Amino acid sequence: MKLFIDTASLEDIKTANSFGVLDGVTTNPTLLSREQADPVAQLKNICQIVNGPVSAEVTSLEARGMVAEAKRLVKISPNIVIKIPCTVEGLKATKGLTSLGVRTNLTLCFSSSQALLVAKAGATYVSPFVGRLDDISAEGMALVSDIKLIYDNYGISTQIIVASIRHPIHFLEAARVGADIATVPFYVIEKLMRHPLTEAGIKKFMDDWKKLKKILDK
Ligand code: G3P
Question: In angstroms, rounded to a whole number, what is the distance separating the alpha carbons of residues 16 and 19?
């Protein structure tokens, strides 16, 4: 499973990239607004850090506007993937952009029927939001399993990005159901390698090593 970071923070992207396991970045208008910088400049900087797909979201609500925005956004870098909401207008824009060879990430996906239609329109990626479904007592990961089943039934090549990840179990479950990608906020990425037994084990090894050195130095 590929690991994307879900942020527009250059600092967090640089740090996560230094771990050597980052495959891409997803942003959205909320994440970009948190950085209080020019979004185009911010996206350009992100694309210079990460050697992989970087999702940039359109803010138009109708297809014609989405396509026009996408044409401007793809000029930022060859890394740019156009993020489009799962709406009928989004479907039309996806169809048009796919025919132009532009990669798309269909976001705010909350149902399998949306996922099937965006795939038919040629979406490169679909992003089911698991955390937001969990928030309303629906099972986010059940949606991911269902999309995976449907895509496998028909050999659909649209890749599933599990989004709205809130904790390490979301990340693990995404891998268990066979999602292609998980896009993970930095605070969750940091937790993925942490284990108290690893930390306790290192401390014990270091303490014993110091004891041996003391004996040898006598
Ligand atoms: O990838 C989508 C993500 O940015 C939304 O996350 O936590 O706001 O539901 P959240």
Answer: 5
- State pTM to two decimals: 0.96
Beta bridge partners of 26: 6, 55
What spacing in Å lies between the alpha carbon of 214 and ligand 1's midpoint? 52
Q: What is the 2 CA–ligand 1 centroid distance (Å)?
A: 17
Q: Do 56 and 72 contact (CB within 8 A), yes or no?
A: no
pLDDT per residue as tens digits for the range 5-45 = 999 999 999 999 999 999 999 999 999 999 999 999 999 99
193-206 residue pLDDT tens: 999 999 999 999 99
Residue 192's region, left for phi above 0, alpha for psi from -120 to 50, else beta, is: alpha
Cβ–ligand 1 contact at 57 (below 6 Å):
no
